[in-house]
TrEMBL record:
The gene is GABRB1. It is found in: Postsynaptic cell membrane. This is GABRB1 protein. It comes from the Eukaryota. Keywords: Cell membrane, Chloride, Chloride channel, Disulfide bond, Glycoprotein, Ion channel, Ion transport, Membrane, Postsynaptic cell membrane, Signal, Synapse, Transmembrane, Transmembrane helix, Transport. Residues 110-222 form the Neurotransmitter-gated ion-channel transmembrane domain. Pfam families: Neur_chan_LBD, Neur_chan_memb. Residues 5-102 form the Neurotransmitter-gated ion-channel ligand-binding domain. InterPro entries: GABAA/Glycine_rcpt, Neur_chan_lig-bd, Neur_chan_lig-bd_sf, Neur_channel, Neuro-gated_channel_TM_sf, Neuro_actylchol_rec, Neurotrans-gated_channel_TM, Neurotransmitter_ion_chnl_CS. SUPFAM superfamilies: Neurotransmitter-gated ion-channel transmembrane pore, Nicotinic receptor ligand binding domain-like. The chain crosses the membrane at residues 103-127, 168-189, 267-286. PROSITE patterns: NEUROTR_ION_CHANNEL (PS00236). One of its GO terms (molecular function) is extracellular ligand-gated monoatomic ion channel activity.
Length: 289
């Protein structure tokens, strides 16, 4: 405390404090935080004294030299106010710091690996459905890796009850990876379901062809005209009995069903990437803009 020549008193005080700031993490890690730092009188009310910034916001300096691991200070405000209590109204000086989280670290650690895992899961759509070990191992590996990534990311975050932006992205990525596994399960089930009927239809076609061959080799017997024979028999001709075209149609239909199994993969090759691209567009517009 010093006394100046103009009969004013200057009081200087150095305070070192560790402060906490309550944060809203709903947009984490694209969040921006507002942290107030308040200096308040303890024993004097506004009737005794008032606090003012001498030069307004210019009174605060040195913030540009501060380097934080996850945040950047992009703005600040110098405010003054008061706090109301039962014992009276006490003067306050407020410094409001505005933080913006650095997202590049989370891109490298979380977003890019999750996106790559989703893309890798689509490789199974280009593998032959008959290659069961390759498709199953690829799908299961991506699901387990995605589970590890989600668990590791959540372990580094505070335990809060509401959903964060990074939770939405990781859950959707996990759904895409797991859906790729379910897609192969559906393809494999359909392929096995129609595998046995296809063999039976092949045997039916072979029997039909054999029957037709025997019909061609066998001589035609013309019955006597006793009045009960059909007109074709009375004219010296006879009709060969051919199998119903429905049998052949069913066989062709069986081949068409087997081809549809590959069509599922072809459809998913377009559906999954396009849906994931739409999700990313909506996600970054909602949380980053």
């Amino acid at each position: 405390m010093t006394r100046n020549k103009n009969e004013t008193v200057s009081f200087q005080l150095i305070i070192t404090a560790k402060m906490e700031c309550e944060m809203d993490l709903r947009k984490y890690p694209m969040d921006e935080q507002s942290c107030p730092f308040i200096l308040e009188s303890y024993g004097y009310t506004t009737e005794d004294m008032t606090y003012e910034w001498r030069e307004g916001e210019k009174s605060i300096s040195g913030l540009k030299d501060i380097r934080l691991s996850q945040f950047t200070i992009y703005d600040y405000k110098a405010l003054q106010g008061y706090g109301d209590y039962e014992t009276g109204r006490y003067p306050q000086l407020q410094m409001l710091l505005l933080f913006r989280r650095q997202v590049f670290f989370f891109f490298l650690q979380t977003y890019i690996p999750a996106c790559l895992l989703v893309v890798v899961s689509w490789v199974s759509f280009f593998i032959n459905p008959d290659s069961e070990p390759a498709r199953v191992s690829l799908s299961v590996t991506t699901v387990l890796t995605m589970t590890t990534l989600v668990s590791g990311t959540r372990a580094q975050l505070p335990k809060i009850s509401y959903i964060k932006a990074i939770d939405v992205y990781l859950v959707v990525c996990f759904v895409f990876v797991f859906a790729a596994l379910l897609e192969y399960a559906a393809v494999n089930y359909q392929s096995r379901y129609y595998k046995t009927p296809r063999k039976s239809r092949k045997s039916k076609k072979a029997e039909i062809e054999e029957f037709q061959l025997e019909e061609k080799k066998a001589p035609l017997a013309v019955p006597e005209n006793d009045g009960s024979s059909p007109p074709a028999a009375r004219n010296g001709t006879a009709r060969r009995r051919f199998p119903s075209p429905k049998v052949l149609t069913s066989f062709r239909g069986g081949r068409k069903i087997i081809e549809d199994v590959n069509d599922i993969d072809k459809f998913c090759r377009v559906l999954f990437p396009s849906t994931f691209a739409v999700f990313n567009a909506i996600y970054w517009i909602v949380y980053a803009v």
